[in-house]
Each structure stands twice: as C-alpha cells, then as structure tokens.
Amino acid sequence: MQTLIQMILPSLVLPFLLSAILWQLARSNQSILWALPLIWLPSYLWLLGWPSWFPVEANQWLWWLVVASIGINFISQSRMVLVTTMQSLLLAIVLIAATWPVLKYQFDMKVVIELLVVIVVGVLTFRYSSKGQATAPALTMVISCGGMGLVVALGGSLLIGQLAGALASVLSVFAISELVQKLKPSISPLHLLPIMQLYLVILVIARIFAETPLGPSALLLVAPLLGLITATRYAFVLSAASVSAAMSWLLLTTDSSSYY
Q: Model confidence at 1, in pLDDT bands (50, 70, 90)?
C-alpha cells in the first residue's frame, strides 16, 4: 500500500493539484500559462532527484528541455513560425544529446532512422498544431501522455511511465475543462509546445533505453499528431484509438521484463 502511494503521489496527485492551481490562475491571466511545463518539474525531481548540472543520463536532459522550451517561447514573442522552427531545432538537439551514448558506442543506423522519423513527426506536429484547429488540444495530449505512461510502465520501465503519467496529470484539469465546455480549447498551441517536446523525448528514451517495442512506439508517436492536426470536432478520438491500439499490441505480443 505504501509503495502504491509513493507511486501515485508524484506521478498523479502532485501534478493534478498544481494543474488545478494553474488553471484557476489562467482564468484571469492567460499569460501565466507559460509556467505549464514548470509544474511537471516537481514530479520529475521527486522521481529522479536533483539532476546533474551537465546531464550524464538520458532522462537528465528533460529538465534542460523544459528550461530551453520556455526560453524559446519568451524569445519568439508569440510568433508561431519562429517558435515552431526553434522548437524543432531544439527537439533535434536534445534527441541527439540524450541518445549520444548509444550512437557513440553502439552506432546503429536503425536508431538514426528512428530519430529522424521522430524529428519529422515533431516538426509536422508543431507546425500544423500551431494553426489552432484542434478542438480539444489538452484532452488530446492527456490521452497521448497517459497512454504512453501505461504502455511504457507495462512494457519495460515503471519510472519512465511515471514521468509520462505526470505529464498527463499536468494537463488533466485543462482536459476536464474542455470536456465540460463541450470541447472548447482551454489552452493555445503555443503553451502546449513544451509539453509536446517532453512527450517526444520521453517516448524516444523509452524506446531506446527501456526497449519499448517498435509497433506500440510508432502508434504512440502518431497519437498526438492525429488529434492535433485533424480538423474534426472529435479528433481526440483518433488519438485514443492509436493509444488503444498501442496498448493492445503490447499486451498481445510482448512479455517485457527489462526496466530502465
């Protein structure tokens, strides 16, 4: 029971409470939403401890990503073309840095191709989601992040699964708001970009270091893309379908026992 509580508190309860506080503050001041990725950091620090100033492990690049993403949003002054271009460059840099030990000591062209695919999907997601056509962007990301958390936790790494679950909880109150308001967007694509960045990097870490199977990983990769760029009212259902397929694939085909 105590172990269960220790798992739930940092990955679900804490980010949910911080999400509720931020949502309430944002009702009167939307500019406060720049702090959205910051409310994920307490969960990160709880689960992993204080990171090294210079990252020595893949997951230690995540807090640098949060800081850099927020910095880009400030520098860009809400110019979406500049934001998406810089965030795409940041994604490529962090992915290469996080996976460099693998690329350096055990070079594998398959890993390089997978990284390129993730970067391309990231660029497409950033660029097309910036048009703001998604009806429920927070709900889409909660479905995607929560699904990734379950798949990764069951498929190889409870720790990385908790990090993804905390990312879902960060947006949980915003997703609830969208459901209550009949799918009216509760947050802009600009403020969601750092969360998208974290999602993609966590997914790559899970794929390479926790050996999450390729099939479920690919379905999780496209899950947010389907929900954010499809111009239909219920686009989030496509994300849910992709996540459900990833979970089914994992349960039917994989018996993973390696944890990162």
A: low
Of 32, 14, 66, nearest to 196 by C-alpha is 66
What is the per-residue pLDDT across 8-65, written as a single tens digit (0 to 9) for each? 888 899 999 999 999 999 988 888 888 899 999 999 999 988 877 787 788 889 999 9
3-state secondary structure of 157: coil
Sign of CA dihedral 21, 23, 26, 30: positive
Taking Cα atoms as reference points, which of 127, 170, 145 lies closest to residue 33?
170
Q: Residue 252: which residues within 8 A CB-CB, separation 6 or more?
A: none
Residue 43: CB atoms within 10 Å: 24
pTM for this model (two decimals): 0.92
Amino acid at 210: A
| Burial group, residue 23, by CB count within 10 angstroms (0-12, 13-18, 19+) | buried
Determine the residue type at 226: L
Query: What are the residue ranges spanned by the domains of the chain?
Result: 2-253
Place of tokens 């479905």: 143
